[in-house]
Amino acid sequence: MHEPPGRFDFTGDAVDLAGRLIGARILVDGVGGMIVETEAYRRDDPASHSFRGLNRTNGTMFGPSGHAYVYRSYGLHWCLNVVAEEGGAVLIRALEPEFGIETMQMRRGTSRLLCAGPGRLTQALGVTLAHDGLSLGAPPFDLLAHRSGAVDVVTGPRIGITKAVDQPWRFGLRGSAFLSKPLH
What we know:
alpha+beta; 3-methyladenine DNA Glycosylase, Chain A; nine-stranded antiparallel beta sheet; 3 helices; 9 strands; globular
């Protein structure tokens, strides 16, 4: 069940939070849209950055829920996560662009696939390591629960990882044209 419109409730396990984030809206300095794809990572998950415990790069994952955990993937692009319970996080994989589309196009240098995939999404929103540890409930972020009605969420295996690949902890909005890869 999703929260009524307004402030988002970040409590709970990463798997639960990943499903509840579908249909919510995230903005960074007024640029963003509806979350249509997420992936969950728990502390006991071998694919999670927190699996081997606290270190200098994953410290934000052990902080308060509702904060941004930002890391560089393969030295190429930033990834934006929502911290859940201690050691858990939800990767925001894709958005349906709604606000600041021209800014997104300028940042990405294209009008195609603006937020389909975690690297494209952070580039379009202007997210960098400077956002790591910031509250998603305070500027420059704004994360709002979905507006109203049921959200049709589908699940499937996570992608882009080599461990625990069969976990059905990838969540998406059924029928969305903005997913990074189809979910059936």
